[in-house]
Amino acid sequence: MSTKVYDLVEYIVKALADEPDAVNLSEIEGENSIMLELRVAPDDMGRMIGRKGRTINAMRSLARVLAAKLGKKVTLEII
Asked: pTM of the predicted model, to two decimals?
């Protein structure tokens, strides 16, 4: 089931990636939580993390805000 949080993160990641076709985002949804696992091409890994983790932390913050509006908690991990 694709949620608004999933769609938002997928949109941001594909916009940032040099190889958007290599982006693989999987979602595990529980009663009160959503777990997102992100896989990208090795060359895009640094771009997703950003300097000192700023990019991934910004994506996590946006996902958290949207999930809070839906009454859920979200976790975003890069694998």
From this structure: 0.90
